[in-house]
Amino acid sequence: MMLEKILNYSKSQLFWLVVLRVLIGWHFLYEGLVKLVNPNWSSVGFLLDSEGIFKDQFHSLAANPNILNATDFLNIWGLIAIGLSLILGLFSRYAIMAGIILLSFYYLSHPPFIGLKYAMPMEGSYLIVNKILIELVALVILLLFPTAKQIGLDRFIFKPGSKTID
To answer: Is 162 part of any domain?
Structure first.
């Protein structure tokens, strides 16, 4: 027997889930655009400032100019594509998953753990939970409670009951 997901949100639930999706989309889009228009932007400082168990992997990305250029390109255009997709509700399930992966890299690069020191100043004082982790969890919530088939361009592409995308 196959279980079907039935999405019966109240109007206020749907409204706030869409608001959350659009706000996160705006954050991604704006971060990508700011990096795109700044000719001096590079992820090299962020990567070299990495700490934690994956710091060697992040440092190696910064060490090779070709890999660094590819990383910068993917970061900028990934942010822009994810942001636009979330705002428009277009292929939103894939955008949410890509956003979760990207935020996971950001979190793992600069985990807010005791004993780790960073050259780049943080906006606040964090222990385990920071704004990156909160935004990542919010994307997981949007993955579990999709809205783009009700309010978004996905409703014109995918049938409401289709298994292709949520």
So the answer is: no
* Cα Rg, the chain, nearest whole Å: 18
In a domain, 65, yes or no: yes
pLDDT digits (tens, 9 = 90+) for 29-41: 999 999 999 999 9
Domain tally for the chain? Answer: 1
Classify residue 129 by its DSSP letter.
B
Joined tokens for residue 14 = 């749907």
Distance CA 77, CA 83 (A): 10
Bridge partners (DSSP) of residue 87 are none
Contact between 78 and 102 under an 8 Å Cβ cutoff? The reply is yes
Supply the range of the domain harboring residue 151. 16-157
**3-state DSSP call for residue 165?**
coil
